[in-house]
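2024-03-11 09:14:02 INFO worker-7 job=invfold-0412 stage=load source=structure_tokens
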């Protein structure tokens, strides 16, 4: 299967180029000798973090109780050990594979470049910057191109959506909802507020369940037979 690869933006390259300077400026001189997280600890934490991305088990990854996650798809940060762990499990389950390419460690800060191969087949290069406190992750900032997660699948793929539909709705993500998909969602978690989703042509309102701070862009579901 041929994957589409989306490039990292020029701004991200600038961030990476300045990483060492920024990290040094934010800690006192001699930070490499006085850091409260050793390089060995940082390496072990990063190894466990990216292993957990593929096993979906973050129980052994150390976070501070007040850990904060910020990402390209979030307007507000995710805060707290439990919320961040829950979110990262969902992120890992959305990928066939997360492959670490390289990492840079500077005192209590680190930056890791990796490839996120989604279950949908696209590959997104990403960078996450970490800040450690006393051998635990205190902050994560993820940088990546969010467009693959917000746009329809590749042209030619059997999605039930025509090119005219895409062209006529540039601000919407078009997501076909099949009968099989309806049954799956009924089992996995949505609540009917009004109307009947099974009755063609009749408006209805549902409440869906998402992870905390998940962003759902405006979209619509064309009816399928």
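2024-03-11 09:14:09 INFO worker-7 stage=emit residues=225
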């Amino acid at each position: 299967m041929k994957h589409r690869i989306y490039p990292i933006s020029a701004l991200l390259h600038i961030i990476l180029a300045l990483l060492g300077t920024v990290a040094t400026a934010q800690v006192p001189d001699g930070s490499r000798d006085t850091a409260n997280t050793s390089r060995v600890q940082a390496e072990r934490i990063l190894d466990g973090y990216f292993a957990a991305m593929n096993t979906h088990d973050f129980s052994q990854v150390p976070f501070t109780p007040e850990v904060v996650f910020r990402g390209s798809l979030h307007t507000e940060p995710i805060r707290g050990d439990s919320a961040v762990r829950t979110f990262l499990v969902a992120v890992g389950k959305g990928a066939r594979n997360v492959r670490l390419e390289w990492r840079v460690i500077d005192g209590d800060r680190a930056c890791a470049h990796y490839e996120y191969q989604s279950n949908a087949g696209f590959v997104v290069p990403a960078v996450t910057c970490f800040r450690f406190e006393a051998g635990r992750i205190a902050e994560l900032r993820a940088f990546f191109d969010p467009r693959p997660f917000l746009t329809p699948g590749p042209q030619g793929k059997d999605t039930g959506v025509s090119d005219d539909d895409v062209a006529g709705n540039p601000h919407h993500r078009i997501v076909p909802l099949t009968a099989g998909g309806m049954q799956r969602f009924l089992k996995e978690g949505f609540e009917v507020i009004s109307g009947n989703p099974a009755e063609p042509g009749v408006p209805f309102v549902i409440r869906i369940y998402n992870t905390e701070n998940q962003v759902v862009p405006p979209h619509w579901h064309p009816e399928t037979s």
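2024-03-11 09:14:09 INFO worker-7 stage=report msg="Strands lie at 63-70, 78-79, 95-106, 109-118, 123-133, 136-144, 173-174, 190-194, 205-208, 219-220."
2024-03-11 09:14:10 INFO worker-7 job finished
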